[in-house]
Amino acid sequence: MLSNVKHSFLTRHHLSSASSFPHIPTSSPDTNGFLKVQSPSMGENVLRLSPLWLRDHCRCSECFNSTTFQRNLDILELPSNVEAKSYNLNGEMLEIQWSDGHQSSFEVPWLLNNTHEGKLLSQKNDQKVEKTLWDRSIVEELKLTPIFNDEMQDENVLKEVFRRVVKYGFAKIERVPPTVEGTQRVCQQITRLSNTFFGSLWENGTHFDHKDTGYLNGFLEAHNDNTYFTEAQGLMVFHCTEFNGVGGESLLVDGFHAAEQLNRLDPEAYQYLSNTVHHSEYIEPGEHFEAVGPILRHDPVNRQLEQIRFNIYDRAALSTIAQTDVEQYYRHLKSLASVVKRKENEYWFSLRPGTVLVFDNWRLLHGRAAYEGKRVINGCYFTRSDFMSRARHFKLV
Question: Is 70 exceeded by the pLDDT of residue 314?
Fold first, then answer.
């Protein structure tokens, strides 16, 4: 059955009748038998759908549990030679009668959101938050309105924290009580705290609790944390609860902006650091963490930059590179470091008691000026999974 309801259109590529619909470009027969869908919400775009994919993604109660949002269909029970016996597109609803007697229905917007081709078609209409890459001048021009801790109970205020982290890589929350309890309260409002060997909530500046350079009071170059973890913690929180001294200014660098500059200035270095792995490690009594991976890691599906893993302190012995190739390695690593250290890329500011900084550890590099006196920082980590879960809840990603 073939139905043309108003401006909705559905046919199979192996049918030559597409030419009878002048608003659809004529296509040659397709021996794969893909279904071709066009609805009012898609404009002139056409979505080609595999019958096998559609049968596997049936959302009826027999195939899918709508309470748990998990599948019921055993993959071995999926017929590999399934065909659409009849199909109809009513407005934005695709209805299919299968050759095995099963029935399925799909909303076109769902198909657009859940197929590879559909996502490509809908990108230009995507209302989700896009990243804004920045240098110091761009950040200083933002002039963002303050986010106040005493307003965080408002869901829209909390959503704004997430929006800024997704868009700019960081957000500041003001008027936070400069206590451990104050830090913990605001952290717990964001999402679940991650419990690493540093603890779920940690304090820096009172004791040399860990064999980490950050626990000293010297200058810290811009870096990402946890490059020695198999999966670095996704988000970090800093809250200065006590400061009595001089120095200690905080530093942020947009690592994605630095990577973009590197790709433009030295594409060979960008490709090398994207495809060459090296070890990072952390050692203290009772602990020895080690991870291996590229400095620039990309999403395996869309190939967009997903994470930068740049930390000069945590570099392990260079055992992943042949001795004949080390000159090339150091040349490219220095190329990235020179971009990261550009003065125009550095955003310096004073983090004083009452201000909480939340930032993306997969995107932003952070550092600190040397200081004298007492400077106490409370903080925590959030896993990438937990933060992104909440961001999806807010429909930001």
Answer: yes
Mean pLDDT check: name the lowest of 119-123, 175-179, 197-201, 209-213.
119-123
Cβ contact 376:264 at 8 Å: no
Paired strand residues for 281: 290
Identify the bridge partners of residue 254 per DSSP, sorted by sequence position.
Answer: 364
Measured on CA atoms in the order 140, 144, 146, 152, is the torsion positive or negative? negative
Is residue 204 a contact partner of residue 381, using CB atoms and an 8 Å limit?
A: no
Domain carrying residue 258:
127-397
CATH code for the domain of 119 = 3.30.2020.30
The helix (run of H) or strand (run of E) holding residue 273 is helix 267-275
| Of 250, 244, 233, 234, nearest in space to 178 by CA | 244
> Of the residues 95, 124, 153, which one is the last residue of a structural domain?
124
Reported as a single tens digit per residue, the pLDDT across 101-142 is 999 999 999 999 899 888 887 665 555 899 999 999 999 999
Sign for the CA dihedral angle at 325, 331, 336, 337 comes to: positive
Rounded to the nearest 10 degrees, what angle do helices 326-340 and 267-275 cross at?
Answer: 110
- Residue 95 CA to its chain's centroid (Å): 34
* pLDDT (tens digit per residue) in 2-55: 333 333 445 443 333 333 333 332 222 245 688 988 888 788 888 999 999 999
The rounded distance, in Å, linking the Cα atoms of 376 and 207 is 10
Amino acid occupying residue 175: R
Domain identity same for 55 and 103? yes
Structure tokens at 392: 């999806």
**In one letter, which amino acid is 50?**
S
Separation in Å, CA 88 to CA 35, 46, 84, 267: 11, 15, 10, 49
Rounded alpha-carbon distances, angstroms, from residue 250 to 173, 185, 370: 15, 23, 10
Q: What are phi and psi of 356, to 5 degrees?
A: -105, 130
Instruction: Give the chain's domain count.
Output: 2
Among 94, 124, 154, which residue terminates a domain?
A: 124
d(CA 357, CA 355): 7
Contact 29, 14 (CB under 8 A): yes
| Cβ contact 10:3 at 8 Å | yes
Q: Is residue 243 within a helix (H) or strand (E), and if so which, with residue range?
A: strand 235-247
Q: What tokens does 176 get?
A: 């936070």
| Dist CA 124 CA 150 (whole Å) | 37
